C-alpha cells in the first residue's frame, strides 16, 4: 500500500499526454518506409525523444536479424512472420493522427533513464521506447505494468540491450485509456502478480 501511495504521488508531477507532432510522425514513417531519408547529421540534430523513439522503431524492425545462426528454418520463418506483423503494427501506430505522445521518466536507480510512449486509442496499441536503463543483473528482469488505481496488471517484459535501449509494443485486451499509468519495475522473478518495489520508470496515461 505504501508503494502504491508513493507511486500516485509521483504521477502528480507528470505532464498530460500530448498529440504526436505531425513532423515527428512523418520523420518516423520515413525511417520505416522505403524512401529517401535525411542525412545523418540532420537526423542527429533532432530532439532527444525523437531519437529515442526512432532508435526503438529501428530496433523493432531489424532486431530479428540478430537471430542465432543455428536456428532451424521453421523458427526463422516464424520470426520473419512475427517481425513483419510487428512492422505493420508499428507503421499503423505511427500513422495515426490521433496518437498521443507521453513522456516516460526514470526514477530511483534508473533516474537517468528517459523515453516516451506513443499511444493510439483507435487501435488500442502503444509503443514504449526507453534509453539509459541500467542492464538488469542475472536473474532480474524489467516488467511493464498497467496501473488502475491500486491494481497492477502485468503488460510484458521489457528487454534491454547493452547500450541501455529498451522497447516494447503493447496491444492489451483492455482499453489503454482505462488505465491511470504505466510503470516499469525491476523484479527478481517473472512470476510476480504485483510490483515488489518502486517503479524505475513511470508515465501517466490519464
From TrEMBL:
GO MF annotation list: sigma factor antagonist activity
Domain Anti-sigma K factor RskA C-terminal: 50-189
Ranges annotated as spanning the membrane: 48-67
Cellular component, GO, one term: plasma membrane
GO terms classed as biological process: regulation of translation
Keyword vocabulary terms for this entry: Membrane, Transmembrane, Transmembrane helix
Official protein name in the record: Anti-sigma factor
Lineage per the UniProt record: Bacteria, Pseudomonadati, Thermomicrobiota, Thermomicrobia, Thermomicrobiales
Source organism of the structure: Thermomicrobium roseum
PANTHER family: ANTI-SIGMA-K FACTOR RSKA
Amino acid at each position: 500500500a505504501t508503494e502504491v501511495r508513493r507511486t500516485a504521488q509521483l504521477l502528480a508531477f507528470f505532464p498530460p499526454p500530448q498529440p504526436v507532432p505531425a513532423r515527428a510522425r512523418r520523420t518516423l514513417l520515413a525511417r520505416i518506409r522505403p524512401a529517401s531519408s535525411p542525412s545523418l547529421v540532420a537526423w542527429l540534430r533532432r530532439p532527444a525523444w525523437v531519437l529515442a523513439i526512432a532508435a526503438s522503431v529501428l530496433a523493432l524492425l531489424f532486431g530479428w536479424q540478430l537471430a542465432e545462426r543455428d536456428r532451424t528454418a521453421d523458427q526463422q520463418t516464424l520470426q520473419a512472420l512475427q517481425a513483419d506483423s510487428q512492422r505493420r503494427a508499428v507503421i499503423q501506430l505511427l500513422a495515426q493522427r490521433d496518437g498521443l505522445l507521453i513522456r516516460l521518466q526514470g526514477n530511483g536507480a534508473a533516474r537517468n533513464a528517459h523515453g516516451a510512449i506513443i499511444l493510439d486509442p483507435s487501435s488500442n496499441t502503444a509503443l514504449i521506447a526507453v534509453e539509459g536503463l541500467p542492464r538488469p543483473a542475472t536473474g532480474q528482469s524489467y516488467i511493464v505494468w498497467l496501473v488502475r488505481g491500486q491494481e497492477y496488471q502485468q503488460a510484458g517484459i521489457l528487454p534491454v540491450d547493452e547500450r541501455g535501449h529498451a522497447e516494447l509494443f503493447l496491444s492489451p485486451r483492455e482499453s489503454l485509456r482505462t488505465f491511470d499509468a504505466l510503470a516499469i519495475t525491476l523484479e527478481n522473478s517473472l512470476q510476480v502478480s504485483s510490483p515488489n518495489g518502486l517503479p524505475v520508470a513511470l508515465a501517466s496515461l490519464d
